[in-house]
C-alpha cells in the first residue's frame, strides 16, 4: 500500500491532455486510468522560421479528441497508450483557406520502468525511464492544416518527481525522439508543478519545450508544402489548470495552454477539458 495518500489524486492528473508525456508516479499493479480529453486550439499567427507573423489566411483551428490509458503491470513497470482524432480547418473569407483535414492522429505507446520509488527510498525522488513509440496516423501531409508529420518513430526519456509534504508535487522529464519521413530529431522537456488544495481540488502549472534538429525553415529556398515535416519545428509552451475529483475514481480537468515561442509552428492558444476514471482490477474482482 502506498504511504502517500495524495498519490491517487496526482495520478488522475498525470494523464496528458495534449500529447503523450511520462510520469514518475506509476499505478499500483493491476490498476490504472482511462482519460478522454477534448482539446480546442486556435491561432491567427505563426512562426515563419523564428519570426512571428500573421497567417496568410484568417486563422487556423484544430479540435482533437484524445483517448489515453495507463496500466500498472508490477510495482516498477507500467504501460501507456494514447490515440485520437483531429479536425483542422483554415478560416479565410476570400479567397478560401487551405482545405480542412479530419483523420486519426498518431498513436503513442509507452513503457515506463521506475528506477527509484520515493515511498521506499525516503528522502529520494521518484525516478523513472520511459521508452515510447509513435505510429503515424492515416492523414496526408503537404498543407498548413496537416494533423501531424505522418512519421513513425521511437523515443526515450528520464523522468524525476517528488511529492513534498503531501500538498505539493514537482516532476520533470527530458528525452529524445527520432522519426522517419525526414522529420528532424527532437529533444523535449516537460516540467510540472501541482498544488493539492484539498482532496477534491488540484491546481497545476506546466512547461513544455521541443527543440528540433535540422535547419529548414518555412520560406527557405527549396521549401514547398510537401516539406513541412522536414522543417525545424521548435515549440515552447506553458499551461495552467485544475482537476476536480468528484469521487476517488472520477476526475474532471480543465487546462489552458499557450505558445510563448517557436519556430515553424502555429502560435496556438488552447483549452483542454478532460474526464478521467481510475480503476483497480484486483478490487473490482473482490
Structural class: mainly beta
Tell me the total number of β-strands.
Answer: 15
User: How would a textbook summarize the main sheet?
Assistant: 12 strands, antiparallel, barrel
Q: How confident overall, as mean pLDDT? A: 89
Quaternary organisation = single chain
State the order of secondary-structure elements, H for helix, E for strand: HEEEEEEEEEEEEEEEH
What separation lies between the terminal Cα atoms? 17 Å
Based on Cα principal axes, name the global outline: globular
Percent of residues in helical segments? Answer: under 10%
| Proportion in β-strands | over 45%
Rg, alpha carbons: 19 Å
**Biggest sheet: strands side by side, in what order?**
1-4-5-7-8-9-10-11-12-13-14-15
Count of discrete alpha- or pi-helical segments spanning 4 or more residues? 2
Which stretches are poorly predicted, pLDDT < 50 over at least 5 residues? 1-6
Description:
The protein is mainly beta and 286 residues long. It has a twelve-stranded antiparallel β-barrel with strand order 1-4-5-7-8-9-10-11-12-13-14-15. Strands 2-3 form a two-stranded antiparallel ribbon. A hairpin with a 2-residue loop joins strand 4 and strand 5. The longest helix has 8 residues. It starts with 6 loop residues before the first helix and ends with a helix. The N terminus is likely disordered.
Based on the model shown, name its key terms.
twelve-stranded antiparallel beta barrel, 286 residues, mainly beta
Amino acid at each position: 500500500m502506498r504511504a502517500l495518500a495524495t498519490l491517487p489524486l496526482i495520478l488522475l492528473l498525470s494523464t496528458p491532455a495534449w500529447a503523450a508525456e511520462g510520469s514518475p508516479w506509476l499505478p499500483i499493479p493491476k490498476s490504472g486510468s482511462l482519460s478522454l480529453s477534448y482539446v480546442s486550439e486556435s491561432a491567427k499567427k505563426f512562426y515563419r522560421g523564428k519570426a512571428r507573423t500573421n497567417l496568410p489566411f484568417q486563422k487556423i483551428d484544430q479540435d482533437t479528441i484524445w483517448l489515453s490509458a495507463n496500466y500498472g503491470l508490477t510495482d516498477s513497470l507500467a504501460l501507456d497508450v494514447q490515440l485520437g482524432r483531429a479536425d483542422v480547418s483554415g478560416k479565410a473569407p476570400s479567397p478560401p483557406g487551405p482545405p480542412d483535414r479530419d483523420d486519426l492522429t498518431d498513436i503513442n505507446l509507452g513503457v515506463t520502468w521506475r528506477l527509484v520509488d520515493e515511498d521506499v527510498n525516503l528522502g529520494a525522488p521518484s525516478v523513472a525511464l520511459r521508452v515510447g513509440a509513435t505510429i503515424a496516423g492515416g492523414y496526408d501531409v503537404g498543407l498548413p492544416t496537416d494533423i501531424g508529420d505522418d512519421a513513425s518513430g521511437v523515443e526515450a526519456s528520464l523522468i524525476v518527481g517528488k511529492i513534498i509534504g503531501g500538498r505539493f508535487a514537482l516532476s520533470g522529464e527530458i528525452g529524445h525522439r527520432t522519426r522517419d519521413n525526414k522529420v528532424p530529431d527532437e529533444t523535449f522537456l516537460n516540467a510540472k508543478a501541482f498544488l493539492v488544495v484539498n482532496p477534491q481540488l488540484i491546481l497545476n502549472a506546466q512547461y513544455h519545450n521541443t527543440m528540433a534538429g535540422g535547419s529548414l525553415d518555412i520560406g527557405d529556398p527549396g521549401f514547398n508544402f510537401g516539406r513541412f515535416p522536414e522543417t525545424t519545428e521548435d515549440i515552447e509552451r506553458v499551461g495552467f489548470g485544475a482537476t476536480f475529483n468528484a469521487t476517488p475514481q472520477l476526475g474532471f480537468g480543465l487546462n489552458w495552454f499557450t505558445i510563448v515561442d517557436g519556430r515553424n509552428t502555429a502560435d496556438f492558444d488552447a483549452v483542454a477539458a478532460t474526464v478521467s476514471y481510475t480503476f483497480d482490477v484486483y478490487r473490482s474482482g473482490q
